[in-house]
């Protein structure tokens, strides 16, 4: 019996020994994490005292903004929008088990630490909406899925190594001052779903290799200085939901391959130098909600094929060189809310049923060569608030139905050939603040009616056939600097 005691006591001692070793290792690891956090805190200013319980008397797993794993290791630092300023020390990027760092919407400044991409555990990094300057550091993190460095003042080129973040699904470098070309290596990011490089100073062409990034759902490359043509290969990105290339220097035609993007809901190509017609294939994108091709050099007709875009809510084709008629098909798009076709060379009549089956809130067809009457049903939705038809050749009376359109706020019908009298309800629209019907052929006494337009700030009746004295009041206190010019030339403006 006694002989057996020795080995047992011995194994208990061995066990104790290992227990102590392991425990002290864990303590050292905890001390390391504690020190790294305190070092991070020491370089920050914290005016809201959000970090006030960051001191060693409480276990760091209970500190504000810190979340630990179930084995008491720091996994999450979440300090978004806490008005923290100062510099970020590299220490938090050395936390051995860190997975999520969110320091967005603060006033952090200075350069990003060189070893920001040295962690092997990090999956989510959001440093957006701060004041970081200097270059994006070299390096990459294999596991990182989300990298958001947007809305800082980061400069220099996008590092080639961006292509080594093999797990990246979300990349936002927008709203910085990055220069140079889009690095080709970016096309290695085959899991990437969201790519935002918007609002930088990027130059060169959009790489055609982007067409190989089949997981992409959102592309935002707007507000740069990209040039050349839109690559045909983008038509291969069949998961794409948003394509936004606005405010660049893109030339050539819109590739008809974009008609293969059958999941596309938002196509924004405005403010470029695109020419030629809208490819017919675009009208097969039946999921489109918003189509904005304004401010380009596009030409040709807007085809009746647009009837296929049953989900369309917003159509902006203004400031182009479109000719022909406004397609009648637009009147049967049930969700159409905003229709802006101004500054083109459109002719013929406005489709007479426009508005009846739509949900119009904004209609701007100004500066074209439109003729005929203003349709009766424009305000059938009861939501029309902007009606802008100036500088056309519209004639006949302003439809009576519009005088019942209580939602109207901004009405600009000047420079047409409208005739007849203003109905008495028209001068009682409660929300209209801007009302310009000058340079038409309208007539009638203007003082024989009550003007009750309490919101009015700008009124121009000039260059019509109105007569009679001025009314005592237009019903608005906001209307100032009243300037009657002559019997038939009336105008007044607010400041
Ligand atoms: C707790 O940790 C173990 C391993 O350390 C892990 O398998 C488990 O998923 C964790 N549980 C939670 C809820 O995080
Ligand atoms: C954040 O700090 C700015 C000045 O840096 C101050 O104007 C602002 O009021 C602060 N916000 C809060 C919520 O305290
Ligand atoms: C990063 O933070 C900002 C501000 O809190 C937020 O709007 C944005 O969605 C975040 N980015 C990601 C990828 O979650
Ligand atoms: C952040 O940058 C903006 C723009 O340069 C500047 O106006 C602001 O003062 C900066 N804030 C801090 C805290 O540095
Ligand atoms: C990144 O590495 C390249 C060479 O590989 C070097 O030219 C560049 O200066 C480095 N950038 C930074 C921010 O360290
Ligand atoms: C487009 O390029 C022209 C010269 O080719 C340049 O003057 C202009 O600033 C560029 N536009 C943009 C938005 O960068
Ligand atoms: C845009 O690029 C063109 C030519 O590539 C260049 O002439 C122009 O200066 C650039 N504009 C800006 C604002 O960077
Ligand atoms: C688009 O689809 C058509 C068939 O519908 C196919 O012939 C064409 O190659 C595709 N284009 C691209 C760029 O994927
Ligand atoms: C617009 O079209 C007319 C012919 O209809 C053409 O003469 C003119 O050059 C075009 N303008 C632009 C900017 O494309
Ligand atoms: C019409 O537009 C309004 C807002 O402008 C919206 O609340 C309403 O749901 C829309 N109706 C339809 C049928 O789309
Ligand atoms: C203006 O209207 C009157 C009838 O009210 C009509 O006789 C005249 O031809 C019209 N003038 C123009 C330029 O349309």
Automatic annotation (TrEMBL):
Residues 256-418 form the Disease resistance R13L4/SHOC-2-like LRR domain. Residues 32-69 form the Leucine-rich repeat-containing N-terminal plant-type domain. SUPFAM superfamilies: L domain-like, RNI-like. InterPro entries: Leu-rich_rpt, Leu-rich_rpt_typical-subtyp, LRR_dom_sf, LRR_N_plant-typ, LRR_R13L4/SHOC2-like, StomDev_PlantInt_Reg. The lineage of its organism: Eukaryota, Viridiplantae, Streptophyta, Embryophyta, Tracheophyta. Residues 1-29 form the signal peptide. Its main location: membrane. It holds the Pfam family LRR_14. Transmembrane segments: none annotated. It is found in: Cell membrane. It comes from the Eukaryota. Keywords: Cell membrane, Glycoprotein, Leucine-rich repeat, Membrane, Repeat, Signal, Transmembrane, Transmembrane helix. It is a single-pass type I membrane protein. Belongs to the RLP family. One of its GO terms (cellular component) is plasma membrane. This is LEUCINE RICH REPEAT FAMILY PROTEIN EXPRESSED.
């Amino acid at each position: 019996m006694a002989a057996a005691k020795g080995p047992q006591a011995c194994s208990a001692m061995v066990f104790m020994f290992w227990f102590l070793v392991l425990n002290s290792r864990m303590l050292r690891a905890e001390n390391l994490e504690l020190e790294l956090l305190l070092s991070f805190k020491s370089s920050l200013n914290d005016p809201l005292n959000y970090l006030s319980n960051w001191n060693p008397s409480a276990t760091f797993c209970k500190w504000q903004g810190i979340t630990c794993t179930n084995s008491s290791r720091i996994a999450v630092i979440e300090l978004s929008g806490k008005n923290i300023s100062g510099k970020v020390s590299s220490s938090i990027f050395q936390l051995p088990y860190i997975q999520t760092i969110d320091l967005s919407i603060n006033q952090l400044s200075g350069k990003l630490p060189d070893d920001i991409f040295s962690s092997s555990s990090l999956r989510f990094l959001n440093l957006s909406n701060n004041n970081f300057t200097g270059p994006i550091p070299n390096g990459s993190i294999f596991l990182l899925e989300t990298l958001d460095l947007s809305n800082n003042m980061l400069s220099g080129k996008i590092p080639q190594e961006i292509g080594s973040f093999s797990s990246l699904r979300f990349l936002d470098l927008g709203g910085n001052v990055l220069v140079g070309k889009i690095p080709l290596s970016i096309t290695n990011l085959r899991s990437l779903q969201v790519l935002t490089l918007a609002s930088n100073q990027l130059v060169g062409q959009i790489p055609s290799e982007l067409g190989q990034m089949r997981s992409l759902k959102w592309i935002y490359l707007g507000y740069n200085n990209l040039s050349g043509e839109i690559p045909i290969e983008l038509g291969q990105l069949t998961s794409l939901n948003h394509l936004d290339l606005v405010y660049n220097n893109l030339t050539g035609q819109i590739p008809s391959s974009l008609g293969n993007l059958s999941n596309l809901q938002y196509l924004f190509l405005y403010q470029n130098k695109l020419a030629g017609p809208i490819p017919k294939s675009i009208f097969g994108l039946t999921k489109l909600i918003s189509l904005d091709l304004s401010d380009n050099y596009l030409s040709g007709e807007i085809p009746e094929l647009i009837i296929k875009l049953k989900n369309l809510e917003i159509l902006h084709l203004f400031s182009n060189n479109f000719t022909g008629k406004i397609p009648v098909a637009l009147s049967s798009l049930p969700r159409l809310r905003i229709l802006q076709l101004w500054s083109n060379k459109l002719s013929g009549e406005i489709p007479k049923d426009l508005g009846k089956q739509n949900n119009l809130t904004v209609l701007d067809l100004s500066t074209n060569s439109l003729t005929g009457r203003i349709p009766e049903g424009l305000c059938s939705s009861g939501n029309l608030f902007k009606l802008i038809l100036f500088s056309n050749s519209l004639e006949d009376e302003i439809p009576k139905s519009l005088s019942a359109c209580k939602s109207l706020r901004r009405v600009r019908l000047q420079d047409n050939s409208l005739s007849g009298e203003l109905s008495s309800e028209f001068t009682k629209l409660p929300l209209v603040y801007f009302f310009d019907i000058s340079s038409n052929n309208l007539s009638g006494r203007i003082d024989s009616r009550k003007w009750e337009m309490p919101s009015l700030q700008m009124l121009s009746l000039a260059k019509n056939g109105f007569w009679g004295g001025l009314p005592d009041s237009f019903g608005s206190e906001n209307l100032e600097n009243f300037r009657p010019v002559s019997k038939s030339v009336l105008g007044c403006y607010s400041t």
